[in-house]
Amino acid sequence: MRIIIDAMGGDNAPNAIVSGAVRAARELNTEVVLVGRGADILKALEQQGITNLPKGVEVANAEDVVDMHDDPSTVVRKRRDSSMVVGLRMLSEGKGDAFISAGSTGAVLTAATLIVKRIPGIRRAAMAPILPTATGRCVLIDCGANAECTPEFLLQFACMGSFYAKTTLGIDNPRVGLLNIGAEDSKGTELQRQTYSLLQRLSEAGAIQFIGNVEARDVPLGGADVVVADGFSGNILLKTMEGTAKLVTGEMKKVFLQNGLTKLAALICKKGLGELKQKMDYREVGGTPFLGVTKPVIKAHGSSDELAVFHAVRQAVETVQSDLVGAIEANMEYLAVPKELDHAE
Amino acid sequence: MRIIIDAMGGDNAPNAIVSGAVRAARELNTEVVLVGRGADILKALEQQGITNLPKGVEVANAEDVVDMHDDPSTVVRKRRDSSMVVGLRMLSEGKGDAFISAGSTGAVLTAATLIVKRIPGIRRAAMAPILPTATGRCVLIDCGANAECTPEFLLQFACMGSFYAKTTLGIDNPRVGLLNIGAEDSKGTELQRQTYSLLQRLSEAGAIQFIGNVEARDVPLGGADVVVADGFSGNILLKTMEGTAKLVTGEMKKVFLQNGLTKLAALICKKGLGELKQKMDYREVGGTPFLGVTKPVIKAHGSSDELAVFHAVRQAVETVQSDLVGAIEANMEYLAVPKELDHAE
What we know:
The structure is a homodimer of 345-residue chains.
Chain A: E1 2-6, H1 15-28, E2 31-36, H2 38-47, E3 57-61, H3 75-78, H4 83-92, E4 98-101, H5 105-115, E5 126-127, E6 130-133, E7 136-141, H6 151-169, E8 175-180, H7 190-204, E9 209-215, E10 226-228, H8 231-256, H9 260-268, H10 270-280, H11 282-285, E11 288-291, E12 297-299, H12 306-322, H13 324-330, H14 332-335
Helix pairs in contact in A: 1-12, 4-5, 6-7
Subcellular location (chains A, B): Cytoplasm
Family (chains A, B): Belongs to the PlsX family.
Pathway (chains A, B): Lipid metabolism; phospholipid metabolism
């Protein structure tokens, strides 16, 4: 397997990207292709004491870099020699099995849609991160790729999310919930009310197991295996979880630092606390796949460090192995939008 | 001061409501009026060993009760003898200074709007809970009263939230942020983009201190003193914080229960853990005021117990003392919606 990696994207590029990729090549038995300014990549390798390219690690030169200030809609045209665009082109040409970038989310999504292209019939590609819950993990779809959505988009997100939960989390018949502000089907805005009835129909057709609305409070508690949301509220959910976990663990830390005895208590609990931190740590989850494009594209966190990049590669490998794209293509009959509800292309 | 309390609203009514109100009358030096079925209220008092009405506690009879299944829009008409409607009528007639209910949120909002009425010029009343943050507390407005909003609504929410943060949290010049999925003013949906420029103008006029967009991740970390949101995404934020705090503290508990030593560690940290729990506990915050109506109306959590009711009364007392309604009325010039943006009544 060959994973193509944008070596220049993200806050800690290229160093963290390069070292995470090298570690992944070594430990995960996969090839990685680092795309970016050759000189910068070699320098990053050198800083780790690597003077010859390790086995399984390749470099593909791309002189330009996509900036966080670049308008996503012009990246493919104006940054054609950037690491992101070159890498995505390699993916689309079959020169690798998956692509990872920690660069600008908007740019990755737009460029992936234009270069790798959506699966025919899919209206929008969506970001589907995996969240920790009290009972395990769940898939959230979408979390920000599409701030404004139609019920048709959400119908397809529900299906894609369900396949993803099946293949990645190994859940046979995932419970699909619609993120809403109450349990009753009359709750929310027009978007939620229309989506509710679409998902009910899809559930009756046997394509997914729709369990109704899920309130945000119940998402971290394991209320659904797949949480379907427009990109705006999905993003609020994802980021609030991140911030709240940080708030609570920060307060915990203050408790442990109070005096010598509490510091001892922290020592006693060290292993458990480490596991908890790991559970809540975005870096362990890896990246967020874009579901709906023809090949696996993974967005790593902008502030990814070596560990996060390593896990993003692990996740890319798993996504390729599980043939998620194949599962979506094989189920397009369910994903087809009912004609009478065909609002937008 | 006289606080009117819906004795029949909420999961634990009337017992928890009655005992919380009695405690508040005793400790907060205020009068409370319990509205509801007289026999049920007396029975609840008896269960606490109280056979004569304590000083400062009154009972006002109301034979009917608003149900969680009642359509909020018909409550005032169909449940005119309910504790909620009778209590709100008493408030509007000046028979008390504030009203508290733990009953159906939709019903309280609709009934309060119809009976107590909005402050002239205010488009929508909004729910403004106080959230714990890493650096203190912040006001969220709205958190669910208005699932669908216009930029004009949000403009007024920003102002009301700023006054509320000033009077309740004692912050001189509160930092007002717009909940969004990115920092740039181009982020979000049309609603956020239009609201952004309205808030910028309001800030230039000196009415509020607008600090731009605030991402959900930064809300629990103290990124703003006032977080302005439509009711849908505000509700997602509020409920995700609640669920995530529960997830993390639940996982913490597992760590402490692992073995004898970790249980000892929990004992050592008991005081600090108690304070942390208190910080994250909705019951300590009290209720959520509806801002924008002519008198203080406070919605207590549906599952309020005695402690939550006690704090809701404390909050009602503080809201009356701070004359928030007066502050909003005195600033209607800033709250007036610019003519060219006058979308909806």
